[in-house]
Amino acid sequence: MSNPQSDAAREILSRLIAACYYQPGPEFAEERVFDAMSEAATAIDPGLGAIAERLGPAFAAVTPDELLLDYTRLFLGPNEILAKPYGSVWLTGEKSLMQNATMAVLELYRDGGFELAEDFRELPDHIAAELEFLYLLIFRENRARDAGDSAALAAIGLLHRRFLAEHLGAWIGRFGAAMQNGAETAFYRLLSELTVAFVNRERATS
Which is the CATH superfamily of the domain at 4-205? Predict the structure, then answer.
């Protein structure tokens, strides 16, 4: 049975985890992002909450330069990218981007009515984009459920399950392991742990 408090929290957590995969800045702490993440994660599952509540202290424990350096090493390079944040890389095993997997996730985005922002400078299968799409799917499921629209709920639920089975849920574990192995800050190790746990929970319960 659906739990309205947990369902709303899933929306919040997916959106805020996605935000953490953009370049880090002081606005995270200033806007109480981590408090909101901890509250949402706890409402979903105590195990998720136990991970999320450590993110804020881990963020505060390092300097902005240390955090930015770790972010750059993990996701940007300039030499070897330690945790490539693109689904196509993990799904195909190829180093080149814009594979068939990227085209497939774009098709799912279209089916779900999801459009990337004009100022989004990354590829469509970037981890942040896929997490934002997951947020949209949860949001739309919740609204359909609230409206008693069983047909819309079934259609969105099918898209949700397909997205997790064929895309985000299929590569998140390997991506998270690469983050764990490559991160020098506790913040990014915890972020990888939270991301994997949340996506796997969504896949198991959707």
Answer: TorD-like (1.10.3480.10)
Q: How far apart are CA 70 and CA 206, in angstroms?
A: 33
C-alpha 156 chain-centroid distance: 18
How deeply is 110 buried, as exposed, middle or buried, from its count of CB atoms within 10 A (0-12, 13-18, 19+)? Answer: exposed
Question: How far does CA 163 lie from the centroid of its chain?
Answer: 13
Torsion of CA 186, 189, 190, 193, to 10 degrees: -160
Residues facing 86 on adjacent strands = 126
Provide the pLDDT confidence category of residue 98 given band limits of 50, 70 and 90. Answer: low
Confidence of residue 99 (pLDDT cuts 50, 70, 90): low
Query: Would you list the domain boundaries of the chain?
Result: 4-205
Most distant CA atoms of the chain, gap in Å: 52
Burial of 201 per CB tally in 10 Å (0-12, 13-18, 19+): middle
> pTM here?
0.92
Q: Is 74 left (phi over 0), alpha (psi -120 to 50) or beta?
A: alpha
